[in-house]
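Same chain as my last thread, 813 residues:
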Amino acid sequence: MTYFTQRLGLIFLIVGSLLLGSTTSGQGAVGPGEPGCTLHLAFDDTLLGPPQVHRPEWQVRPGGPLLNRQEKGISSQGLICREPFDGIVLEPSDPLQVADPFVRGTFQCWFKPDWNSGEGPGHHATLAAFGQWRLPPDLKGFWGITIDPTGRQLQFGAQSASQGVTYLVAPIAFSRGQWYRITVSFAPEGSWIHVNDVQHGPGQGVSFLPPVASLQETGLNIGNAPGGNQPVQGLLDEIRWFNYPLQDLELEAGPWGLRGRVIDSDSLPPGILLSWPVSKGGPFAIRRRLSGKTKWDLLETQWEGFAYLDSWNGLDRGQTYQYQVQDRSQGGSMQEVSVAHSLGPKHHSGTILLLVDQTLNEALQKDLDLFSEVLRKDGWLVKRAQAPRHDDRSWRSNPERIDRTKQTIIQQLGQVKTEPRVVMLIGHVAVPYSGFHALDGHVKPEDDHRGAWPADMVYADLDGVWTDQQVDHVNRISEANTNVPGDGKFDQESAPTRLEVGVGRVDFANLPALNARRFFASSARRKQEEIDLIRRYLEKDILYRSKRLSFAAETLVEETLPATMGHKLRAAALTSGSLLFESNAGKIRPGKLIAGDRGALWGFISGYGGPSTMVIGERTLQSEHFAQANSLPDVAFLGLYSSWHPDWNCPNAFMRAALSQDHAVLGLMSILSGPWDFQPLGLGGCLGDVFIASGSHPANPAKRSLAILGDPTLKTAVVAPVDDVKVIFRGEQRRLEWVAEDMPGREGYHAYLRLPGQVDYDLFQSVGPEVDHIVMPQEIPANSEFMVRQGQWQRTGSGSFVSLSLGMSASTP
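reply #2:
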């Protein structure tokens, strides 16, 4: 077997057999309507690359006219395209779907020319094409991405049997021996060319296609024209095809794209596969340590690729490992990621303290009883206490109320060992204030936002010393922001020590706009409206936990501020997407969140903010609009990048009003208060874990206004519960039975027991995914309660773990 035959066989194996979302992952292949990467040619010497193919849409044409030669590329090997018959020919696995990739999609590659623009390749050169380009009237059919002979233009066009169109031409200025990332996106709506992420276009949309016979005759040619003689005169690497047009947002994913994937299939060696977007950086140093340890093990010092398989046989299932990838090039960065290695079910989620506004506690008693029981069936140890209400009329009494609230948290959670520990503030619980700097840049005398902002972070730090001696600023615009020594508002801009407790707040005080009420409405009426909003939130929370509110596993971003202002929003969006979803492709994209796109798990919006308003493009959104159905973000979790909103304790506050929707927005946050660390969600954690991690980062902790409005126990990996749980007699057996719908990646079922007089459930027995009952011992007392939860394997950009459903219960007769 020749070298070229061996290499073609390897490429065929990579393109045809390595499937992302195989049966081991519990996810299906990418369908025509699901955005994704459908082709990835990396030309590596081994299969140790990032996930290469979502489904085998293409295969190498046996006996194709082009020779597949390689040399050192940007990742490992690259495809040589210099001689008349260099390149590679692909053909579709399904001839009936041949049109799909060329109507709407993206071609992307890295290219290193052997020439400078001006001299060029000396002939028309082809990056990707099928069919034969002809002069009229001899048109037969052609589709291609080409470079002109001088190397000054990149061209995208097509011919049918009757017409020809150049959709878009982009100027290029290439230098010999330099790598360039070329991205050509197209759809009926338009076409775009990006060179090193600089956009050209839009050009014309794809309005027709060549005859199918053109593709069947020549195949899809990469790096050369069908039949040869038009090589691009250089080196190609990391060739990808997407089934949707990539947007600017996804092309900027590089700095935040380090991910980890657990390999547990039969097609690859077991281990943890790290991958990051191909860039011009490197080589890389790679280190690993067990989570919780301090010492790093150096794995590589000069790694040349953009993916690394840690196949050390000492890796243990059920452990979390931290990895560090350091770019050793000049000005290179350091990135870290934690990877869950097949974590089993976590039967005890942690401890939550429901800390309730004492003026609302009695009215919410039944609602809180029900909610507490739901939390227990989700694995939480529940504690409840009351706390003093914030005084909005005068600050004078609030410092003492804040201190009492914090002491209650310390008493209830200070000695608790189960992690995480979280507090859910329900109602208008006393609000701490801290700091001086205006994170939104409003510092002019007539537009002053300097001074103390709400700081629930104070409640999360059980042992830090918060001082009140340094900041001395009288705010003439907003008295609430005034911060002077000795007033009970703290100095700190971030937590003085590591946070121990995750905090979330559900607070609908002083929001008359939601019910079109004036402020002089009776206090009884205002209190009832506040109670009703809390009840509706708790109902929404329960629906989400039981997967009766469902959201697509994707991140939508609506940017309306100039690009120079939006880097924090993009960082948060790209970080959440790369760590929460197994593949970036199609999971992070621009969208219209305001009365637009379908429901997504995460949404991020930038705009110009005011205390009760947000200008999103040409639309001004006000707090009162959150009382209107079908006009606001249909997402589970929402991040806002805007002025004023981190200062959320004001009448008709936009942030708190946004939490009032009945079927969306279970949690929201201000991106200004970050940086946010969303990694815990990708490891199976909750929003409270995110709060702790964000505020505790040793090098760059979140700001003092860090706040999660919503339930801190919520997770992004939600599993549907089982149904029809019952205790029955079958013959002489007493059995616990249940019904569950088909579900990919089911790990098994777990039964828990609560004896009469007990509050919490204890694990009783676990069974496999094919079992639908448990035989109960006869000595179980009457009126004991059994609960069943089902587990499902989750695959994210942070590894793999089992997520448990909400429990469903039945009592013994």
